[in-house]
Amino acid sequence: MKIIIQRVSEASVTINDQVKSSIEKGFLILLGITHEDTQEDIEWLTNKIIGLRIFSDANGAMNLSVKDIDGDLLVISQFTLHASTKKGNRPSFLEAARPEVAIPLYENFISTLSRKHTKEVYTGEFGADMKVRLLNDGPVTITIDSKNKQ
Asked: What stretch of residues is annotated with the motif Gly-cisPro motif, important for rejection of L-amino acids (predicted)?
């Protein structure tokens, strides 16, 4: 499982010209799932997200978590995070999980994250053509891969 976390002042996702979800200060999380991902990856990544201290404290140091600031979370599924560009100019997505594997993991990721954050996690729609808007705060953008936890 790979994620890209962007610290945002605001973010939203639109599907078919309708805003599905919008958040204020918090994280926009792009989530890529492979066919090898498990509940262990979900647990590790959601703990990382909740504990990640990248919001400024009173002294301006990155010392606060999304939970500390009561921030919002917006999760967008993005299979293209697993694109391989080794050969040719057209990316291969063979590592991305097929929907029958990815959807249950995506839903479990959201429910696990919501339970740990103790507030609603906003989402896009798996497999939909989504338009994502964000105001990156910092900018702060961090990539985390659950396969690199050692």
From this structure: 138-139
Could you report the per-residue pLDDT of 99-119, keeping only the tens digit for each? 999 999 999 999 999 999 989
Of 113, 33, 108, which Cα lies nearest the Cα of 73?
113
What H or E segment, with its residue span, contains residue 13? Answer: strand 2-15
Is 80 in the active site?
yes
Q: How far apart are CA 133 and CA 63, in angstroms?
A: 26
Domains, in order of start, for the chain: 2-148 (3.50.80.10)
Mean pLDDT, to the nearest integer, of 7-13? Answer: 98
Where is 21: in which H helix or E strand?
Answer: strand 18-23
Three state DSSP letters for 47-80 = HHHHHCEEEECCCCCEEEECCCCCCEEEEEECHH
